[in-house]
Amino acid sequence: MWTRYHIQCNSCDKTTNLRIQIPERKELPVSYICLGCSSEIKATLTVNFTNFTWNFTVERGNLVKGDFDGGDYFYEYSDTLSTKKPASNTLYKQFGYLA
Ligand SMILES: [Zn+2]
C-alpha cells in the first residue's frame, strides 16, 4: 500500500511529491536531497499496526497540501522495493507515470 505527501523545502520553497510505501515495520525514516537546492529533507513515517493507521512527521521541510500529481519534483520511496532517485515532476508526467 502506498500513500502520498507533498513536502516543501525550507530553503528553496520547491515541493516534492513523495510517494511512499507503508512499511512493514513501525518506523520508516525517509531522507532525500532536494533537487532545487541540495538541502536534505527528512521525515519519518510511523505505523500503528493495531488499528492500521499511520502518521507522517516532517523534521526538515514543510508538509503542504498539493494536487495528486502536483509539486516540482517527484520521489518514490520504499524500504523493500528499489526506487528511482528524485526527479523532475514534469519528466514523470511526460511518461505517464502519475496518470
Ligand atoms: Zn530545496
In angstroms, what is the radius of gyration? 13 Å
Say which molecules are bound, naming each kind only once. Answer: zinc ion
Which class of secondary structure composition applies to the elements? mainly beta
Which residues form runs of ≥5 with pLDDT under 50?
none
Largest sheet data = 5 strands, mixed
The count of β-strands is 8
| Discrete helix count | 1
Helix content: under 10%
Mean residue pLDDT: 90
What is the helix/strand order?
Answer: EEEEEEEEH
- For the record, give the distance between the C-alpha atoms at the N and C termini, rounded to a whole number: 17 Å
Q: Please tell me what the overall shape is.
A: globular
Strand order of the largest sheet: 6-1-2-7-8
Share of β-strand residues: over 45%
